[in-house]
Amino acid sequence: MHYKNHTFKTQQYSYGGAPTILAKCNAHILAQQTRYFCFAKTILCACNALFMGYLETA
What's the helix, strand, coil split of the chain in %, to 5? Predict the structure, then answer.
């Protein structure tokens, strides 16, 4: 009986348990960070290009 219960608990954790939820959260956070980083990088590049253009015209 104890062994059966233990197996069920292990399955519960590996399928839709805490680790899976954590993994999903981590993946989501990582995706958000990557998107934000790309966005910031684009703005930085645009600012840099404008600044370089400003220096050339000045």
Answer: 90, 0, 10
- In eight-state DSSP terms, residue 53 is H
* Per-residue pLDDT tens digits for 3-50: 555 555 555 555 556 677 778 878 888 888 888 888 889 988 988 888
H/E stretch holding 18 reads helix 18-57
0.70 exceeded by pTM: no
Query: Tokens at residue 18, please?
Result: 């805490």
| Residue-range definition of the domain harbouring residue 39 | 2-57
Tally of structural domains, the chain? 1
Contact 13, 19 (CB under 8 A): yes
Q: Which amino acid is present at 52?
A: M
